[in-house]
Design goal:
The protein has 399 residues and is α/β, with parallel strands linked by helices. It has 15 helices and eight strands. A four-stranded parallel sheet has the order 3-1-5-6, sandwiched between helices. β7 (337-340) and β8 form a beta hairpin.
Amino acid sequence: MRYLYGNLTFIVISVVFFTVYFTRFLDERTSSSSGADPGKQRKRILDQHDFPTSNKGSEAGQEIRTKERKDIFFLKTHKCGSSTVQNILMRYGLNEGLDFVLPERGNYLGSPTFFIPTMIGKSIRTPNRVYNIFTHHNRFNHTSTMKVMSRNSVYVTILRKPAELYESLYNYYNFEKRYHMNLTTFLENYSTVERFKRGGSKFGYNQMCFDLGLNEKQFDSNGKIKQWIHEIDRTFDLVLMTEYMEESLILLADLMKWPLKRVVFLKLNERKSTNKLALSAAQRKIVRKLNKCDTKLHDYFFKKFKQRIRSFGVERMNTKLREFIRLNDEFSRECDVKVAESKLSTVRYQTTNTLDSECVHAVSSELVFTSLLRNIQRQRVTKLRSLKNLMKNTNDKAA
């Protein structure tokens, strides 16, 4: 009888084990099917790699040491201060020898067309076609992006107040030439002015929504906009705010498990104050109305941004902000940064500390820096391909 009971116990345990195992297996198969939300899947994978950055004693400086993240997708939105964030990520990737998603030439990967993997330059494609950093202009396509980024990549973008964004867009891309009137006159007559197609097929109304991939035909549909905003919320781990750049970068450093010194910056592509138009309250209201989708998008994520700071801790943010301002001041002094003379509408910097590569790269334009990264990656990829071909060759005799 004891033998019989022993066998029965073994059989019961085995049945329970295999039932649990196959149930989990089927769940995973189901979740990875085409009907599953890729944003939710990626979030779940990311959460498995997530660790708390601090414990109850963190305010006393007792930070838990955690593994730094290195894989990040940054959706570079137009005229939102995104060049500043991009420069930080390019400096980090260069220092760490990481692989970038880059075009064969220039600095765009799509837009107005959506990004697809074949837009990556042939000479700089990694052997496994997976990359660490995606930080150049593109029109967001989540499905295609997931094909080139690691499964535990962090997804980040940046937004700006719609009024300031549209004013910047109007002047920087010379909409005055298209509408034959300056922005002030345009806002006085907007209801009678014909809506032109997007400048260069990619610049115009609701620029942030366009960059983030929403179909233009849905820009006036409240229901579609609301549904799409929630999709963006599920996909992106952090949405930065241009007007709160320092606070945003502190949150980014926290998300990536990076020290604050890694996100020190200079404001790149910032327009000269003489080229900026201060909009009145009435003008701002009109711009928000014209850019309804951008307005809803920004309002939603601005609220979440404030919630994020509360979760981070307001006092903790104050402490980090003081430290970050000090680090930025030190960085500017170390690089001996000066405003360069330029006829361009944006502020350009130069450094006398040309022996410090970090300083040189911090003041580099996007095109110059991108060209450097492309050349370095091309050399690295060529070496990796050579090794791969060597090991595929079954002939052990040298030619």
